[in-house]
# Entry
Amino acid sequence: MVEKPADYREVIDRRRFMELVGVAGTAALAGCGNGDEPTDGGDNDGNSDESSGTDNGNDDGAGEDVYADVQHVSQTGLSTADVQWNPYNPAGFAQVSHEILFDKFAYYNYERGEFMPLGIQNWELVDETTYRLDIREGLMWSNGEDVTASDVKLQLELGIVIGSAYADYVESVETDGNRTVLLNLTEQTNPDILTFSILPNEWLQVPESVFGEYRNSLTELQNDFAWTDAIASGPFELDEKGGDQLNTTRRENHPDARNINFGNYAFQFMGENQAVYQALQNLDIDSAFTIFTPPRIVEQYPNTVEEVATPSLWGYGLVPNHEGKHTGNRAVRQAIAFAIDREQVVQNAGPRSKEAPDWLVGIGNSSQERVLGDSAGDFETYGKSEQLTDRAAEVLEEAGYSKDGGTWKDDNGNAVSLPVQVPSGWSDWVTAAETCVDHLNRFGFDAELDGRSFSNLLDTVWPQGNFTLASGGWNAGAPTGALSYFSLRHQLIENFRGHSYNYPAANESRGGSNADVSVPEMGDLTGENAMTVNPSDRLSELARTTDESTAGDIVLEQAWVTNVDLPMIPVAEKQEQSWLTSDEWDVPENVGETEQAQVHWPNAWLPRQGMMNYSGD
Amino acid sequence: MIKVSHSESSDEQFSFDYGESEIELTRRERLQDFYEEFIRKPGMVAWNDRRTRIGSAILFVYVLMGTVGVWFYRAPQTNQVDVPGYPGGRGVPPFTDLSAILGSTQQSGKDILAQIIHATPNMLLMVLSGGVFATVVAVLIGTVAGYKGGTVDTVLTSFTDFAMSIPGLPLVMVLAVVLRPTNPLVLGIVLMVNYWAGLGRAIRSEVLSIRQESFVEASRTMGVSTPRILFKDVIPNIMPYVLVNFANAARFVIFSSVGLYYLGILPAGVANWGIQLDRAYSQGSLVGIAALYQLLFPMIMIMGLALSMILLAQGADRIFNPRVRTRLAGESETIEEEEDADAPAGVMT
# Structure
């Protein structure tokens, strides 16, 4: 019961993805152009073998046998008995198995900072208002039919109707031949926005033969239709499910099958992280998708258990209620930021999987230096690895607060009371929140921990804005959080967890009114308000502009707004920890450092590349 | 169960109702009587039992921790342990350094002894309020229903049955989420919100048989008022049963509060052994043995308090056994000391 379950949903669940990317816009970051073929060498026109047990076309293992009986066992946190694969119906939607059963449009590689094509082989903006997707050649559904452009067209059209992230930019979808889909855009849009909102969030998992009949009955599609006998497009197809395990078998007619030398891929249900820890320690499972694992546990794993850490582009932060008695005051928010030693929080909550952001801005940690560039010096760090209590006291005193009896009070004598809400089941977040509470108390705030169930927080407390300081993710999540547009938008306009934090600039759904924000000139944290901007308008502008310099200026300006006004207070950025084993599996040496493994998730991607095969032992 | 026959006891010995006594007693004598009857004799009887001595000693340690301990020992805080070689004070094993004798938590460097000590006052208050609430409600409803009979019995019994039919744990969980009780006294009551029903039912059965006893009949014939009969004749007779059940109720409070804290249902802003267990478990204390201590110490604390309750309940039973009591108080030389057979074993399960 750690951060992982919900965290996982956050990353895996396409609905969540759709929510987090929001409306139209563009981004300053370079995106991804056309990709190479996903596999090196060999032909791509389907199965090169006549039957199992013959040679496969694996670069690494050409000439090796296919071990039809060998099973790779991974883990899932969702009961395998109830799982179904209709992506439009959240009830029982697969947690992880869809990564193997279906081909994702493209995988984002965090090391390269670009997309690796899979189900979609090529994507590009063909003219100002047309975006084109080409389906990979040779792809077939497991029922023997080809994966066609009409399948993808239906999928994208359904996405538009249900309000997916790209719905605001895409007017209509049409096919051009059997393998090409054209998206007609509402207006000129930076392709990065489209790429990031479509490619990593869609799998080839909507065969028209199955979903076509739901085109006009969305309620049924979203509420009633449970697709339990999935037709696969990926290299494995559904075999059986039941009990605690879901079994899939290798599809010989998939283009990547030649890279895979084992016959079965299974998912064992493990409801809690403890079970996964035990299973990995005993080598009972062969891989695990993303499991937060404390350093002490990692130390106990056998050498053959290998960690792959990938950015999550989100992490623990504090979301202040901007209508709160004290948290509505910018000085208090700044004092909170000064009072917290972020490095200490990281060391407590998970030094192996977390890092403290250098600057408190609405930009992912790994991009901060690049995006802020020469202006970085103007931005406030708020003390990454120390409690800057003097600075905190300074801003509070300037705002009329005073310390009385060891506690900070406002000019009416009310103590600054700061209950910090945290999902009680997320152990690393609880540790982070505990540490923040202690730091705030040491400084002289009256802080206390308020642990509640995640579902209670998500369903009622956060949407209703019943919090003073909520623990929440401060960035938009991977991979969209890599784009400044999405990360800034998350902090300023519309956060993906539904925190009604009443920030004036935010959307109405988050308690705001897209209002102007007045902040001091850049570089002067506590100066007079000399700059009034409208973050909502500016981010829309950012979405439309194709001029890099304008985009850069807007990003810097809005980053400054987040830095000085602190709509959210970033504390830590986490890394996803995936696990592979090398006792029976050939994985690249130092797989954690291997570029190809820097995807979500390596044990779904590497087998397709011939980089995770049965060693034959 | 041993029934205490009040035919042996004179008014002078047992009565509190001094106004009606024909013998005039000075204030000092009354206090002396009170001390004799309610403190010295029960105390002697209880103390004579090894179980009571051990139980009391254990409970005394907890009370000491919950009162003096919290004043003298630092409150738990992150990174409060300062032991060389352990950055941030994290993961100091037990018995390695005097400044944190039971070690520190793996993740946040909290002193485990501090957590244990500072969880005690709330736990004791919770146990007390929960135990008293459940017992008092059960005794009141059970005795009145059993003694009065008729419509009163029907109404009270129906109410009790209704309360019993509500699934306790889900109800407590819902109440905990809705009320978010942070005050341990309130929390104790919430945890026992329908626990009293079963006990009330059992007490009613006891009272049904006691009301047929000759001494109760005699009081009724003499025109003694119902409350007085209940307090003088009935309740003292069910006291051993009640006391044993008080201890059981106390144990129930301990276990359920720890359980609900462990599950994260109760507000986690306070120190509690259940929270300690939860944190230890979720931080992987069960993987390998190096961090087992994080689970072990709070468990020992929970078991210790529960054990002291059981021992005290068993010892308390003897207080109400008149034969043991008179003998030990020096008033009878002839009665053999009762052995464990006197204990109402049936109710201890």
About this structure: The radius of gyration of chain A is 25 Å. The interface with chain B takes residues 1-2, 273-274, 277-278, 281, 293-294, 296-297, 300, 344, 347-350, 419, 424-425, 427-428, 430-431, 434-435, 438, 448-453, 456 of chain A (CB under 8 Å).
